[in-house]
Amino acid sequence: MQGRIIKALAGFYYIESDGQLYRTRARGNFRKKGRTPYVGDLVDFSAEENSEGYILKIHKRRNSLVRPPIVNIDQAVVLMSAKEPDFNSNLLDRFLVLLEHKQIRPIVYISKMDLLKSVDEMVALRNHYQAIGYDFFWSLEELLPRLAGQITVFMGQTGVGKSTLLNRIAPDLNLETNEISDSLGRGRHTTRAVSFYDIQGGKIADTPGFSSIDYQIDNAEDLSEAFPEIRKASHDCKFRSCTHTHEPGCAVKEALKAGHIWQERYDNYLQFLSEIENRRETYKKVIKRK
């Protein structure tokens, strides 16, 4: 039989196949090969009536996230709040870079718009991101049609209200939520196990909240590829290995001067590039000491 893992809990893998749910375990040979089944995996499995089934084969994955481990994702809703915590374009771009690198389609959703005195700044931000090619919503009515027929992950900074949004989308989930901690200035994360839920003819998953991420890129070329507007402009750079910082004939710098690339995005690119270079230098020093 073949199906998709929709929940992993306490060593059991719950597989959906032809409208039925089967509880299975992974055979020991997966551990010997260093392979672990994850939520989202397409698998071959055996299942006998009134007994536990076993996963026999894990099919090739299209993409994966490691925090939490979840695979074969169509798109990710990156949830950012307008206030409490304040909107942070640097953090949003970290999420977008990660998703671009993983070839997962991003959707940006802004929560807590009612806390803003004026929406003008957020409208300007939306225009910038839409010009790059990203969907950018703060209306649930706009978001819901995008979930139809898709496997969607919800991710975002702690305290932005992911569980609250998911409860609005699917009240039957009744996910636990907590208010922002006054002393810490951030929400206490409430998501426990990774599970898929059926909604809008597709599947959605909540993921743990966190305030910073490692975008899992270790070189300038991959970072450039993860910024769509920089990737597009870089095709006309004089040097193939251009980092878009100091090289002559850099088409990205020219596009920046012409206003075709947003300065704030370029500044975030430079910061991420600096972090990559610093990590590489630190790694070299550690290796040299050894």
Automatic annotation (TrEMBL):
Main localization category: cytoplasm
Q: What detail does the entry give on cofactor binding?
A: Binds 1 zinc ion per subunit.
Q: What is its EC number?
A: 3.6.1.-
Describe the location of the EngC GTPase domain by residue ranges.
Answer: 71-211
| Task performed by this protein | One of several proteins that assist in the late maturation steps of the functional core of the 30S ribosomal subunit. Helps release RbfA from mature subunits. May play a role in the assembly of ribosomal proteins into the subunit. Circularly permuted GTPase that catalyzes slow GTP hydrolysis, GTPase activity is stimulated by the 30S ribosomal subunit.
CP-type G domain ranges (all copies): 62-213
Which amino acid positions bind GTP, per UniProt? Answer: S111, K112, M113, D114, G156, Q157, T158, G159, V160, G161, K162, S163, T164
| Keyword set, alphabetical order | Cytoplasm, GTP-binding, Hydrolase, Metal-binding, Nucleotide-binding, Ribosome biogenesis, RNA-binding, rRNA-binding, Zinc
Q: What is this protein called?
A: Small ribosomal subunit biogenesis GTPase RsgA
Q: Which cofactor does it need?
A: Zn(2+)
Q: Does the keyword Cytoplasm apply?
A: yes
Listed InterPro entries: G_CP_dom, NA-bd_OB-fold, P-loop_NTPase, Ribosome_biogen_GTPase_RsgA, RsgA_GTPase_dom, RsgA_N
Write out the similarity annotation: Belongs to the TRAFAC class YlqF/YawG GTPase family. RsgA subfamily.
Q: What class of enzyme is it?
A: hydrolase
Taxonomic superkingdom: Bacteria
Protein's cellular compartments:
Cytoplasm
> From what organism does this protein derive?
Streptococcus dentapri
Q: Which Pfam family, giving just one, matches this sequence?
A: RsgA_GTPase
**Assembly behavior:** Monomer. Associates with 30S ribosomal subunit, binds 16S rRNA.
Residues that bind Zn(2+), according to the entry? C237, C242, H244, C250
